[in-house]
Amino acid sequence: MKALLSSKPVLWFLFLFNLVVAAAAPFVVDGSQGVMTAVGMGVVSLGAGLSLLKGRGQAQTQGQGQRQGQRA
Predict the structure, then answer these.
(1) Which residues are within 8 A (CB) of 14 and not within 5 positions of it... i.e. 6 or more apart?
(2) Which pTM value belongs to this model?
């Protein structure tokens, strides 16, 4: 399950879907329930986005290490 949730397509889906729901929730659901839905979905979207950025940083670091090993 962890491998599935950390794959890039799933992270992109979580990021974009939850971002859209967070933006639309206050207009679709009235009152505090809409606001809390937006906050909750926004937190999930933010977490997926940070995981995407974290994975991107690790990929760049690994690529630099491989290039340095080839030069030596």
Answers:
(1) 44, 45, 48
(2) 0.73
- The span from the first CA to the last CA of the chain, in angstroms, equals 39
Map the chain to HEC letters.
Answer: CHHHHCCHHHHHHHHHHHHHHHHHHHHHCCHHHHHHHHHHHHHHHHHHHHHHHHHHHHHHHHHHHHHHHHHC
**pLDDT, tens digit, 9 for 90 and up, residues 11-70:** 999 999 999 999 999 999 999 999 999 999 999 999 999 999 998 777 666 666 666 666
Whole-angstrom distance, CA of residue 37 vs CA of residue 15? 15
Ramachandran angles phi, psi of 31, nearest 5°: 75, -155
Q: Are 42 and 18 in contact, with CB atoms under 8 Å apart?
A: yes
